[in-house]
Specification:
Shape of chain B: elongated
Radius of gyration of chain B: 34 Å
Structural class of chain A: mainly alpha
CATH superfamily of one domain in chain A: Tetratricopeptide repeat domain
Helix content of chain B: over 70%
Number of strands of chain A: 0
Protein name (chain A): Cyclosome subunit 8
CATH class of one domain in chain A: Mainly Alpha
Strand content of chain B: under 5%
Oligomer: heterodimer
GO biological process, one term (chain A): anaphase-promoting complex-dependent catabolic process
Distance between the termini of chain A: 87 Å
Largest interface: A-B, 31 and 38 residues
Number of strands of chain B: 2
Helix content of chain A: over 70%
Largest sheet of chain B: 2 strands, antiparallel
Radius of gyration of chain A: 31 Å
Shape of chain A: elongated
Family (chain A): Belongs to the APC8/CDC23 family.
GO cellular component, one term (chain A): anaphase-promoting complex
Strand content of chain A: under 5%
Keywords (chain A): Cell cycle, Cell division, Mitosis, Repeat, TPR repeat, Ubl conjugation pathway
CATH architecture of one domain in chain A: Alpha Horseshoe
Strand order of the largest sheet of chain B: 1-2
CATH topology of one domain in chain A: Serine Threonine Protein Phosphatase 5, Tetratricopeptide repeat
Amino acid sequence: MVSKESCRNEIRAAIRQLSDRCLYSAAKWAGEQLVGIEQDPSNFTPSNTRFQRGSSSIRRRFSTSESITTPQPSVGFSQAVTPLPEEDEVIDGDLYLLAKSYFDCREYRRASHVLRDQMSNKSVFLRCYALYLAGEKRKEEEMIELEGPLGKSDAINRELVSLERELSALKRSGAIDSFGLYLYGVVLKEKGNESLARASLVESVNSYPWNWSAWSELQSLCTSIEILNSLNLSNHWMKEFFLANAYQELRMHTESLAKYDYLQGIFSFSNYIQAQTAKAQYSLREFDQVEIMFEDLLRNDPYRVEDMDLYSNVLYAKEACAALSYLAHKVFLTDKYRPESCCIIGNYYSLKGQHEKAVMYFRRALKLNKKYLSAWTLMGHEYVEMKNTPAAIDAYRRAVDINPCDYRAWYGLGQAYEMMGMPFYALHYFRKSIFFLPNDSRLWIAMAKCYQTEQLYMLEEAIKCYKRAVNCTDTEGIALNQLAKLHQKLGRNEEAAFYFEKDLERMDAEGLEGPNMFEALVFLATHFKTHKKFEEAEVYCTRLLDYSGPEKEKAKSLLRGIRMAQTGFPSMDIEHFPL
Amino acid sequence: MAGLTRTAGAFSVTPHKISVCILLEIYAPSAQYLSYPFHSVSEHNRLGLYLLSLTKSCDDIFEPTLEELLHQLRGIGGSMDAWLTGQLIKRFSSLSSPDDLMTFFNEIRGILGNGFVQDDQIILDPNSNLGMFVRRCILAFNLLSFEGVCHLFSSIEVYCKEELCYSAQYGASDKNLESLTQYDQMDMEYVMDKATEKLELQKNACGSLPFHLHTPEALFKVTEGLLITRKEKLRTSKKTTEATPVACSSSSTVEDTLADESLFLRTNLQIQGFLMEQANKIEIHGSSFSSSPIESFLEQLQNLAPELHRVHFLRYLNKLHSDDYFSALDNLLRYFDYSMYGRYEIALLCLGMMHFRFGHPNLALEVLTEAVRVSQQLSNDTCLAYTLAAMSNLLSEMGIASTTSVLGSSYSPVTSTASSLSVQQRVYILLKESLRRADSLKLRRLVASNHLAMAKFELMHVQRPLLSFGPKASIRHKTCPVSVCKEIRLGAHLISDFSSENSTMTVDGSLSTIWLKNLQKRWGQDMFSHDSGSRKSSIFFQFYDRLVSIPGSVSQLIGASYLLRATSWELFGSAPMARMNTLVYATLFGDSSSSSDAELAYLKLIQHLALYKGYKDAFAALKIAEEKFLTVSKSKMLLLKLQLLHEHALHRGNLKLAQRMCNELGGLASTTMGVDMELKVEASLREARTLLAAKQYSQAANVAHSLFCTCHKFNLQIEKASVLLLLAEIHKKSGNAVLGLPYALASISFCQSFNLDLLKASATLTLAELWLGLGSNHAKRALDLLHGAFPMILGHGGLELRARAYIFEANCYLSDPSFSVSTDSETVLDSLRQASDELEALEYHELAAEALYLISMVYDKLGQLEKREEAAALFKMHILALENPQDVEPNMA
């Protein structure tokens, strides 16, 4: 295990270097991790304790004590492969200082102009980086200026070509440092040259692992587990962060959780890790746990907006109106023009049943970030609620085109088409969604219902789907009941009895009652009676007697029939005698 | 145009439009502007016409670069060229800041002459075409924001810079070029000659093959080797890919535009028009259209304009034609997901057709059933009519090989009411329904295609009462040629509808391009060729064709009606009519039709050649057709080749080869894609004939019997008739004339009820032969039968049939005891000579030997020994050729 002290020293140096190069978000991330490391009890300062006190009580409930002392996961790494970053150029040149101030004031072109003749690595990087950002800024402006009726225009970052030329020349001559490599990777990625970009980023993180921006860029280029495994990364604790994040994006939630668990041993107070863990748990549908984690997170970091949309989803699922409105209000005051904020407000209105307003806020979120996946999907849900199926389909389709692995949107598409009375067409979409999430019983049940519609009436296929749903631990118990009914409809009484019994077991275990229960009992009683298994039939009949209503009468008459048959009288149904 | 509106903003100012404005300023100078002294009125008019064409084509997606524009100007300008180009460049270089653009447009306003007018000033009428163009430009410019003006300004810089770069390079390399060209002149000339020669040849082969049935000697020599070796095939395929100018040029222009794309924004209308053009191209060229360049282009276009959803549809089409199921499905669904509001039934219809094309008829049927339901729900009658037509098409295509169980699972009201009916009856009902709806909705194209489908149905299927009550009701089997003709005629009404309507049903943006092209072409004519008189007619036709501009789909339909006419005449037995209709198709509709239809026409023509002119011509034509259609997937050319080779081998007596061809045909019939019933039947028919030729009578009869059963099972009535005839033939050959008679008679009655006149004539001939086989006392009767069938045989029959009839006639006379050779020899000799001539062309050794034998016998009787020897020598030659076929044709291996 890495010693906490060495981690701390590494990060401290790294933050200084990163912010010196104006890589602010990477510096921010590193800073968060730095405070996330548990303090040595020996050098507590009052301020430190104050910062960390609030969380501990709740955190203890979930970060199991073993996880801190767990033996290292299989990917144990040899330490200290990377030397501590050296402080280059203790005193920056005057020009560099000027350029950095310009940069901080967002005058990128001025900054790069100041550094035009500087040859040190640091200056070259800042010059290129400023140029890149200037190009990005211009690109975004042009995008709005040139926006035609057919959507986005062809605005591009016009600096990319010259940047690529310069950086590749530097790389060839070997006069490029790890930050330059990072920028080179970013430029290559923008130009669409993914494999080269990956190589460059790998080189960058291998020589300087503390740049989280480089890792995130690399992660966005790992679209499959094969690519991820083929990367040649040297071991460092930053790699663990990277892998955890990459696993999560590749929907390998348990692997990801294991990594985060391990990292929490060192960074036990890291908000980042906590949020990521919550994300993974959310995907595993552990809503209660996620809610507590987010509450905790907000207590420590009350002005956090990142990841809060996920929290709002949880609150939505739990129908916690008040909590959701509180959250919405809070993020609204913090920063109302964040896509996450708009999404949270949209969620709130949706929960209140005000779908038009919800759509408006989702639209606003999308205006701020066109590629905001969950807003598209949620907007689709709203349109479905508003019975505006075509708009819903459009929204879902956009989500799917942004990320083809989004099973929610595929499912939404299927649902919308089923609503349109096109079950056969819908099947394709359900199949797609199941392909990405084969272990979810809800999807299987939706597909089965599609097969069951009177237009298709493909019962055999429906039965197959329900069976899969049962295997995926169907929590709502629809599948068993439907299986029994379908078999009954097809005249396969043995199978029907089997599934009714199972369903009954389930309901007993969960302590549920209801019409399904009566139905199962009545069927089983009659079934066993006709098969002359009177004891079983009697058991079910007596259970029925506990309830009032027509079932009770039915049970009575059944019992009478059973008695009659047992005592050898010719079996006859008294009820059917004409009076 | 899905959800896209034509707004005023659909017109944007581009550097090219500014060029046009500058030229307009020269054409109609405002008062204070120095004008060019035009030498003559015609010169001035020429410029005006050119400008008119430029403004007309301003909605085209491809805008010429400055260099291209200057090039065109050089062609137009004559003496004023230098001045024009100089002026243009000068004007552009004077635009050095955004403010200059403002003043430029202010000046342009002056040429509209809405102020006071001087005497000799030429004014543009603000409502004329040119005036409108100027006004639109000014309006569009005024609507621009300052950012927009800046963008326009920077794109003008690029527009001009390119030209300058180019001319600089050009100047530098000019000297080199000159020396080079001089040096290479001779070579180049030589190459050019070669190329034009080749072109001419190809043109002959493609365009006017039908007119030159006597293929030129040179061509014949080229195609002498009947089988192409693999290497050659490779070479030809390479050549054809090189020689697909459409694909290449379009793809190259596509690349070019992409380069431009970053400079100029296109309007909706332009892009939509362009996409429609591309879609047409994909459809016409089918799989021979190389799909990858267009795919990459579409991808880029999608990046540039993500809201342009029609791109998805085009990608779907492209993938469909390159047989990529998954991407096609993906793109289709994506397209319809994006095209909102009430188009779901159309999505289903398209999906159904896609499944059908990829060979999933059951899936297709399910989807189409859902389409029927949804369009009923949304009361979209148009879509319903189309869906029903698609369904009937599907059923009739797969119906032959399918059993009714396929249809069991569908619960649609339409199909379920008909679930007790046979597939054919269901097709009929669906067609009728679709036709009724289409008629009431005035969907003329659908009506026409439904009529054609109906004609096809009438042609192929036996009519009987739809629902049969009682045992006796369904006895009447017959087809009705009158109704077939009626349906075809009704189908062809479409074209008169379109031409009488004076329709402007054009693809957006495409007409204007054609306009410009035509204009240029006409100039080319005037300037370069003075002897255009001879070619006038064809050019006139082109013009007519383009300007009236009948939509491609309509002309395809009309073309299909001609093909169907040809097929129906083929079946009814009128060879000249069939040939004529095919020729009409190949000449008039060859360009606009899909490549598979064109292939079919060629196929029919080649078959005709083989039957009526012999194999040499047929193989020569086949060679040409193969080159033309090599790239078409699922090409039927291979099939045709096997058929021809089989016939040829049978006639020459090379039975081993014949057997091999048979087997290959059988292999083609059942591929992994499914069984082609018609082909399968044909293969076994050929097998039986091969066995017959090998004198293995009982085996041949067995094959024919089982074939008959198959035909009966799958309801192939027409094939039944020919199988019966074959059985009669087998019995005749095996000497069992008595057994053969009932088969021949049955075949004749089949032919009668299906109106297969030619087949009936040939069955009558066989019947007569059978009678003669019973003994010479039946010769009179046989002769009567033959004479009854003679008009049909001589008028429409192929070489073989005619020769057989002639020989048989001679045989009859000779075996008639009352006939004396010495007194009436010419009757016999003439027909025999005729027969032997025709058989010569066919290389049918066996029959030829028989004819020659009879000739020499007659001469013997007449005592003309010299002529007898001559005939006998020929006879011997044929017999030898028959006995060892292999060494005569080493190239057949």
